[in-house]
Automatic annotation (TrEMBL):
<dbReference type="InterPro" id="IPR006683">
    <property type="entry name" value="Thioestr_dom"/>
</dbReference>
<dbReference type="InterPro" id="IPR029069">
    <property type="entry name" value="HotDog_dom_sf"/>
</dbReference>
<dbReference type="GO" id="GO:0006631">
    <property type="term" value="P:fatty acid metabolic process"/>
</dbReference>
<keyword id="KW-0963">Cytoplasm</keyword>
<dbReference type="Pfam" id="PF03061">
    <property type="entry name" value="4HBT"/>
</dbReference>
<dbReference type="GO" id="GO:0005737">
    <property type="term" value="C:cytoplasm"/>
</dbReference>
<protein>
    <recommendedName>
        <fullName>Acyl-coenzyme A thioesterase THEM4</fullName>
        <ecNumber>3.1.2.2</ecNumber>
    </recommendedName>
</protein>
<keyword id="KW-0276">Fatty acid metabolism</keyword>
<dbReference type="InterPro" id="IPR052365">
    <property type="entry name" value="THEM4/THEM5_acyl-CoA_thioest"/>
</dbReference>
<keyword id="KW-0472">Membrane</keyword>
<feature type="domain" description="Thioesterase">
    <location>
        <begin position="59"/>
        <end position="132"/>
    </location>
</feature>
<keyword id="KW-0809">Transit peptide</keyword>
<keyword id="KW-0378">Hydrolase</keyword>
<dbReference type="GO" id="GO:0016020">
    <property type="term" value="C:membrane"/>
</dbReference>
<keyword id="KW-1003">Cell membrane</keyword>
<dbReference type="InterPro" id="IPR003736">
    <property type="entry name" value="PAAI_dom"/>
</dbReference>
<dbReference type="GO" id="GO:0016289">
    <property type="term" value="F:acyl-CoA hydrolase activity"/>
</dbReference>
Amino acid sequence: MPRKVHGHDTRYVRLQKNYCFACGLNNPDGMRLKFTVDEERQTFVCRFRLSKRYTGPPGHSHGGIIATILDEAMGKVNKLRHVVALTREITVDYLKPVPLNQPLRVEGREVSVHGRQHINMAEILNEKGEVLARSRGIFIAIDPGKMFGRFIER
């Protein structure tokens, strides 16, 4: 029996090129974050290191980069429901400075869904498993054909 899909089915939506700053492989100036899904835990995970290019305070990441990574992790979670959802609002708790040139991971997961509104959360953790930053976001599911029609491969 086919799995019931909630929202807009986006499995066959293919962008001509992906220039997303956070995850796009076609953006030469982007971060090129690669996420994997942990189906058992229903989370999206990315392991990464931040180079000096992303410096804020000496030896640590800029807060805007931290917010970008958390936003991307939360956005990926919407794929679990086969929807394209855009960020409406995010809040970020900067708990500890995020170091440069250290192994880090970000994990995103769903909190709840109310109609088109998807509430997700994400955390950036260091090698010891300490949470360095945490976010909560509201995403609104959209019809990608209507919004991005001219950018989608046919």
